[in-house]
Amino acid sequence: MSQIAIFRRLAAATLPNLAPLIVLVMVSLVLYSSPQKQSLEALNFDLLSIATATGEVHESLVIVGIDDQSFANLDAQWPWPRGVHAHLLSQIKRQNPRSVVFDLLFSEPSDASEDALLAAAIEGDIPVVMASERAVQQTAYAEVITDVLPIKPFLASGVLAGDVGIRNDLDQVVRRLPDRPNSLWRQALKTAPSPDAVSTDVSSSVHYIQFAGARGTVPTISYYQALFADEFLPEDYFRDKIVLVGFTMLTSPTAKTKGDNHATPFTLVSGAYTPGVEIHANAINTHLQSNIITRIDASWETVGSAIIFFLASAIFVRFGVVRGGGLLLVLAATLMVLSYWVFALQNIFAPVIVQVSVILGGYFLFTIVRYLREQKQSREIREAFAHYVPANVVEQLVEDPSQIKLGGDRKKITVMFTDLAGFTSLSEKTGAEELSSILNDHLNRMTKIILKNGGTVDKFIGDAIMAFWGAPIVDPDQADKAIKCAVEMQQEMQNFRVEYEKMGKPALFMRVGLNTCEAIVGNMGGEDRFDYTAIGDGVNLAARLEGTNKAYGTDILISQNTRDDTTGEDSFCLLDQIRVKGKTQPIKIYSVSSQPDAALLCENFMSNYSAQRWQDALTQLNTIAEIPELMNYAATMKARIAGLSATADDTWDGVTDLEKL
Fold first, then answer.
1. Which of 46, 221, 602, 619 is deepest in the core (most CB within 10 A)?
2. What is the pLDDT of residues 463-493, one digit of tens each?
3. Alpha-carbon gap, residue 260 to 223, rounded angstroms
4. Angle CA(512)–CA(450)–CA(402) in degrees, nearest 5?
5. Rounded CA separation 599/629 (Å)
6. Which of 64, 130, 124, 59 is nearest to 94 (CA)?
7. What pTM, to 2 d.p., does this model score?
8. Where are the domains of the chain?
9. What's the CATH superfamily of 413-660?
10. What's the start-to-end Cα distance of the chain, in Å?
């Protein structure tokens, strides 16, 4: 085989799998560099947060919420006098909390007496944190950043400023820890150190808040309850607590905005927004519970993605749609379980949803490619076999193309050759158009019978037909079907002759040879043009038997191999033993007859014939001559006996050399 041919075969086997792989790589690269990757990873984080949430909040955390009930009980509009906040702070401090954190901005002076009351309440050993924020102003020349801090009297009283800025992701969901050095949650932890807390020196780009749950998970009491703690709360309710004060309303106090509420991972399932003060509480809780979520190292993520892609690609190429799909589902499930495990037990966020999406998308892509390829293969099989293989056989090949082995395969088949007697002389006397019409009519009738009986039409050789049974689909009844087909073909030839004789056209007779053998069956020919055919000594013998009909005056000749392979009830008549050139083993040849006693008559004749009992043999032939199908055979054998009776001696073995006929 030439190097070009080898390359073509390798390319044909490889490219169908490489094409979808290349597309898959391109899709993966695009996905990894697109905003959709961040969206998918955000969804991955949300699902893990929801699945692993325990609802447990550190016992030191409590929120004092400025809510609708507080407004109703205080019967005052916002902003409330700062003396009210001063009274609240005093009530809380009386119970010795760790710290008090106001998620409220006091950046502008109010009534001096009110400010003085709150400044006085701030003083003392219990730390107080108040909100600050960063204002960004864009000018024509620069970006001006200003920290908006609590007013100076409060700072002078010992207030720590905590930045309340919350960083939303692109989808406006809060997941990451606020990243500024003076973030509110950091200031709260500095003022109220706890043996449970870990270092606050973390980068928000790779660390996330582990939310305890949806809105309302952190213990919350109403502002007015804390304001009148003596009436509504136990006397030690705030002891050793980090108390956060902020809005928990769904709208702002002025009813012009949605208020200080933000989407969190739990908004995905609950639809509720979480107050900013509760987000700060969750950030503090994450540290107090030692549950900081850390993103997996980028290098490990890259290596893991490469391994996952390699495994998925191997499954795509190696396995079929059903089995491959099952393995890919197992792979995807394994990735999700591992991601859940490291998130829940190791506090590591290892996103896999992008990889799973690539796997599922790749499976969908490969399924489409394989479907289209199989459809193309089905069309090619139908186009290649539909004209010479029965429809049911074609469908079997379409369902299981592996039954076709390109280049040939050894199969047991029953081969048929047919030929029209005297067609050559007829062609010399008949015009081309009429001859073509006769031939096409004959071939059309015979082909239909072959296909009806499950045969494969190999080729037409002028007026001859080559067909076989047992390929491309294995057929255990091939011999029976071939013999039945031969008989039906001869019956149709009788109808053919009657019709043509009525039209004044010459009568035509057909000879059939059958042999069952091992042969090489497959697509034979060159790289650009080939035919599905069979080759081998047994195929040649079937062709020789077709021609041998002339020597015996028969219409059908069947080899011993075909006779032995049949299970039918046909009456097989043993006609002779022949020896093919180049072979030493004789072959018995048979024909079929509709007469029930024909087989026994022929067997008795051959017994006398082989034993050179010529007179008894002639007596048998006289009876055989009365059978229409064997009349010419009987005449032929009588003439042969006339010659053998004078020349045969004791060395004659009763076998006829085919080359001498």
1. 602
2. 999 999 998 888 999 999 999 999 999 999 9
3. 16
4. 120
5. 12
6. 124
7. 0.60
8. 13-49+297-379, 57-288, 413-660
9. Nucleotide cyclase, GGDEF domain (3.30.70.1230)
10. 42
